[in-house]
Amino acid sequence: MQQRELGSSGIMASVIGFGAWAIGGWMWGGSDDQAAVEAIHTAIDNGINLIDTAPIYGFGHSEEVVGKALKGGWRNKAVLASKCGLVWEGNRGEHFFDSSDGIVEENDNPQAKRHVYRYLGAQSIRQEVENSLRRLGTDHIDVMQTHWQDPTTPIEKSMEELLRLKEEGKIRAIGCSNATPANMDSYRSLGPLDVDQEKYSLLDREREADNLPYCQQHRVAFFAYSPLAQGLLTGKIGPERKFSPTDQRANDPRFSLDNRQKVAAFLRELTPVREKHGITTGQLVAAWTVAQPGLSHALLGARTQEQVVENAAAGAVQLTPEDREFIKRAIANVKLS
What pTM, to 2 d.p., does this model score? Predict the structure, then answer.
């Protein structure tokens, strides 16, 4: 497993990270907590030490499961990343979404719907960090990232509080997510910014024009979330796949039958490269992702031990420049509807 530093923090983390969104259950058709705990242990045993979670993933449930998995000596083996800035108590900040938006919840109860706001006020950040520490069962979080940017709070005010939390030892490094280079300039004007987490995959390459070169220039680690396009690039979601009504992909146009057929055809084109390295389609796509200039880590979701073992193996794959160019040429011809 390759490891890379998180910005200038001195923290080394595996290039393949464990993305803990799905184990929160909400928007992913539920979860199996025991299977998730076993998956996290297997991830660590196979060289994945970076675990990325957030309070909004299952409204605290993902963090609780991660905390359960890291009890005992497991915590010392992990680089733990979480987030702040999406709150569902109160109405401060900017309304972002309601918990039922685009998804039918199990045991749907209108009284239980949550109204989620983007809010990065200083006291809110502190409260979120305290809540995360409690759920995770730890005295510090290695990387605290602002999950979405809050247009109602100056970034400098948010950064000041994050720096105070860092001085207190409750967090070790500061990151942002879903941000622009201008946002990152504002963070960096007050102190070190070590991580930027953005959506990036073979199907989502907009950040190659802005955030990736910025991170490369300013020594900021770039975490790619959804690098397998929520499973679409694994080669395991075929035309026959049926999604649970509580799985966000059930109503996502990207997962239409037409798009799945187009992606399947693209992935078949990659067979020569995949067979050359003796790896799976998902491993090939993950290896391509972490080989991109300026991109340091790929966060791969997993809910089973088998998925984790496959993901971890991608961290040792070394693609040649010719391999990477072949893949880039092939994806250029894919136009999703």
Answer: 0.92
